[in-house]
Design goal:
Blueprint: H1 2-41, E1 84-88, E2 103-106, H2 108-147, H3 152-178
Antiparallel strand pairs: 1-2
Length: 179
């Protein structure tokens, strides 16, 4: 019988230990709760004051003296390899926008090249006009030949000439656009 009494007493001890532990935890929780509520009760409140609101205009102007300087200043110089400066389109220190003409050069070689390009353009225009007239003339001949009942032996060579002239026209047209 001894073993069952020991077993009962160990069970009893366990329940006593659990009960005492629960009691300690409960007392600690209650004391923490009481301390927290005391701290909350001690919180100071600031006195509240009321003011009457009126509508008015606020002027906040500041006068500051100084100089305004641009963020980006660039200097440009004439390049003697491009020729002599012909004319200057702006004054020194003048503000300009991107793309504004500043100065121009007078270069004989470039002037000759420009004249040659203009002549080439005129020549291409003349060749184009002349080719157009030839094509129109050949088309009229083809129409007359067909209307008069001529066979393919007459119209085929004429149509071949028109095709060749149209190719030349396209080449001349490209030259005109290039110039």
């Amino acid at each position: 019988m001894l073993p069952t009494t020991t077993h009962r007493s160990t069970k009893k001890k366990k329940w006593v230990i659990i009960g005492v532990t629960a009691l300690i935890i409960a007392i600690a929780a209650v004391s923490i709760f009481v301390m927290q509520s005391k701290k909350k009760g001690e919180t100071k409140t600031d006195p509240v004051s009321f003011e009457k609101v009126t509508e008015r205009k606020l002027n906040n102007t500041k006068l500051i003296s100084g100089q305004v300087k641009p963020g980006n200043i660039e200097s440009f110089y004439a390049d003697p390899t491009k020729g002599k400066v012909k004319d200057i389109a702006v004054k020194e220190g003048q503000e300009v926008e991107k793309g504004t003409k500043l100065f121009s050069y007078d270069n004989e070689e470039i002037n000759l090249q420009m004249k040659q390009a203009e002549l080439d353009q005129k020549m291409a225009s003349m060749r184009y006009d002349q080719g157009k007239k030839k094509i129109d003339s050949l088309n009229k001949e083809i129409k007359k030949a067909k209307d008069s009942g001529a066979g393919k032996e007459v119209t085929d060579p004429l149509e071949e000439q028109v095709s060749e002239l149209e190719i030349q026209q396209k080449t001349t047209e490209l030259e005109k656009e290039k110039g």
